[in-house]
Amino acid sequence: EQKNSMAPLTSVIAGAGGQWQAYGTGPLITNDSRYGSVNKEGLVELNGRIDSFDYDPVSKRLFASFGTGGVWMSANKGVSWVSVGDKLPSQIVGSVAWSPAGGGTLVVAGGDPSFGGNDYTGLGAVWSNDLGAHWHQATGIPDGALGFKAVVAHANPSVVYLGSSKGSYCSAGAGRSFSNVTLPPSPAGAGST
Fold first, then answer.
1. Closest CA to 181 of 192, 171, 193, 191
2. Which residues 6+ apart lie within 8 Å of 139 measured at CB?
3. What is the SS3 assignment for 41?
4. What is the pTM of this model?
5. If we measure between CA atoms, which residue out of 136, 139, 167, 152 comes closest to residue 95?
6. Helices (H), the chain
7. CA-CA to 7 of 20 to 30 Å: which in 32, 122, 148, 184?
8. 105 and 174 in contact (C-beta within 8 Å)?
9. How many other CB atoms are found less than 10 A from the CB of residue 171?
10. Which H/E stretch holds residue 167?
């Protein structure tokens, strides 16, 4: 449904209907011999790994989270970006979600979600209703987790779901407080071939 709802944007946003290609230069796409054996593996001077996006369709703002680089905002469809995460308690974030509830709320899941050998855990979840000028600690999310995804229920924007390495959580108050969501166990044999 989300993919279909975005279809009209392909005629509004230049290049959205075409094929994806690499943008810029860096270790992932360079043939620079300075990078030696790590060439094209992204292990040297790599930045800009975006872990999640969300969009405010009313004000046409795009938000992005970077595993070890905080939260950024673009008001011009990605042409330029400004940090709205400079005042976060930690720049180690996993996901960002935008909700129109509570006067407009950014919800951030702490913890780098890359699941590599050197992951940094986060400080639970935080929220801001002034585009990052002030951040507030959400209750109910434990520290020391990897933050995988924060998602707003579009049918009820006060409801925010957050998945982490320490469980799944739900907020009925636009990310101010969360409760653990106990998921049922998978049936025997589920997922096996």
1. 171
2. 176, 177, 178
3. coil
4. 0.74
5. 152
6. 2-6
7. 148
8. yes
9. 28
10. strand 167-171
What is the DSSP-derived secondary structure letter of residue 6?
A: H
Which residues, 6+ apart, have CB-to-CB distance to 9 below 8 Å? 16
Tens digit of each residue's pLDDT (9 = 90 or more) over 66-98: 878 889 999 988 888 899 999 999 888 999 999
d(Cα 41, Cα 8) in Å, to the nearest integer?
36
Mean pLDDT (whole number) for 94-106: 94
Token pair recorded at residue 163: 């998945």
Q: Which residue has the tokens 């987790």?
A: 145
For the segment 162-190, what is each residue's pLDDT rounded down to a tens digit?
A: 999 898 999 999 999 999 998 776 666 55
* CB-based contacts of 41, cutoff 8 Å, min separation 6: 27, 28
Three-class secondary structure of residue 38 per DSSP = helix
Closest CA to 65 of 32, 35, 98: 98
Question: Which residue has better confidence, 12 or 114?
Answer: 114
d(CA 148, CA 168): 10
Q: Which residues, including other chains, have CB under 8 Å from residue 113's CB and lie 6 or more apart?
A: 51, 67, 94, 95, 119, 146, 147, 148, 149
Count of C-beta atoms within a 10 Å radius of residue 65: 27
3-state SS, 43-112, equals: CCCCCCCEEEEEEECCCCEEEEEECCCEEEEECCCCCCCEECCCCCCCCCEEEEEEECHHHCEEEEEECC
